[in-house]
Amino acid sequence: MFPEMGFVEPILKDKKPNYRAYIFELIYYIDNKNTIIKIADIWNNKQNPNNLKKDF
Where are the alpha helices (DSSP H) in the chain? Predict the structure, then answer.
């Protein structure tokens, strides 16, 4: 997988680390120090987008 393939999740753009989304359901960020991808959440994109921000 290409770590930066996902887009920066606009709803979480003000949060750190920089959360990315892939296919709108897999929310992850890149841990550059350890060279790994960390999955933060698997989110159902049929929900209200504001609910995603509440989780973080």
Answer: 49-54
